[in-house]
Amino acid sequence: MPKICIVEDDALLCQELGHLLELNGYESSACDDFAHAAEWIARQDPDLAIVDLKVPGNDGHSICRDLRKRAMTPVLVLTSSESEFDEVMSMNLGADDYLTKPYRPAVLLAHVQALLRRASAVPSRTISHRGVTLDLGSGCALYQGKSVELSRNEQRILDVLMSSPGVIVTRQELMCELWDSDAFIDDNTLTVNINRVRKALASLGVPEGFLVTKRGQGYLV
Questions:
Q1: What domain range is 185 assigned to?
Q2: d(CA 2, CA 107)
Q3: Could you tell me if 112 and 28 are in contact, meaning their C-beta atoms sit under 8 angstroms apart?
Q4: Looking at the structure, do residues 161 and 52 belong to the same domain, yes or no?
């Protein structure tokens, strides 16, 4: 039974969310020490964490950042904020997905299922292109003796692009690959993830032209 950690200070909403998850076959646990939420999640070693952006003594951005230093647990940010800044910041700091309140239960469950499916489907293999090696077993990209750890979304993007070198992959194809659908995904979320891939590659010294944007078409390597 997949285990999901909930970081939500609204007691009623937290209880409702836990009940929804348990009715659909998940084990849930709720955080009661928000100042140390990242450490708590890492100790629980869940399959997924659902994190509110604004909790007493902490915030979701810091939780995502601190958790990424400890574990690669998939994170779904659930918040009442509709700010584009909050979404971009969350994704840049390690969140894997972002959903605003009030949420529709079926949509939230679809996001949860997609994140869990992606987390369990990462194969142990390597793929190389133009000197860059993607190691899906360790979750790292390597270039000229240097390596960088990638989030699951970053791994999937590079996997799709490097598996078809020289071929343009559309934004819709990438969104369906990452989230199994593009129906509930803000187009900006993919842009954030692409930018995170570019930053990871740049940190290795990979030439800027490795990942190319084809305006109105998609991306290729």
A1: 126-220
A2: 18
A3: no
A4: no
